[in-house]
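dude i think i finally got it to work??
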Amino acid sequence: MQTLRTFPERLSSSEQRRPRSPAVPNQTEPGLRPPTPVRPLSGPSGPRGPHSWASEASSASAHVDGRSVPAAADRRSAARTAAQVIGLDDPPGGRDPAVEANARLTGSTGLVLIALLFVEGLTVPFIGRLVSWHILIGLILVPPLIVKMSSVLWRFSRYYLNDPAFRRAGPPHPVLRVLGPLVMMSTIVLFGSGIALWLIGPSDRTVFRLHQLSFVFWFIVVAAHVVAHLLRATRLAAADARDARGGRGVDTRERRRARGRRGLIAVSLVAGLLLGLAARSVSSYWTSGRTDRPAIHAASSSAVHRS
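look at this
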């Protein structure tokens, strides 16, 4: 009867007699690839949505071939910071009227100063022949500079004196908060030394060098300042010009305030022009006819030898 046992019975009896090796976790037979774990569709906090997959992909892309690669979140953060610095996400008209008026005056005056400073810079390579124009434009710049510095200091004082409107508007970006005092102080030194140099001539070596060195530092910080504020100032000046024309939706009060700001800038330009023309009557080294480049270099060299 044993020989008549069925095949399944013989198979089961042979399996029982075969010795079995102890089970080792995660052990596979030789020559076989270990099974790939299946990623669950849900995690400890719930279903895995597209955001969780995107976060894993961005973190996984942080290291490629052993090299650190900036993730998408870092690039978005850098782009957001740049947009805040240049004012891309700061459209005009979204603030308190007092804060908006101050910002528009600052921006409009800044554009006027950029245009005048560009013309002033054109005289620098030809300072020997155009020194009188250099002095004239420099003096024209003084009243608009006073207007712009006053508007900036007004915002600064109102914010730190806890004015509710300015506190709600918040401070500038940290980059601009560091850059602003550097621009203001270097501008004061540059124009102060320039006016002193105009009155005493290039015979004073200290003032002459101070004006030259302050111009180098001033040019660097003002270039960064212009890049950071040009878009913001253009948008503010355009909005103020539109309100001054009295477009649709602009009430009489806003039109009158916009025209008042534009009138203040015009008055500062006229005052600067009168100051420059009056300065021509002041007798100095630069108005005595010796305004060629060799004479300037000779005067500065004599000052160096005397020192």
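The chain has a mean pLDDT of 76.
im so relieved honestly
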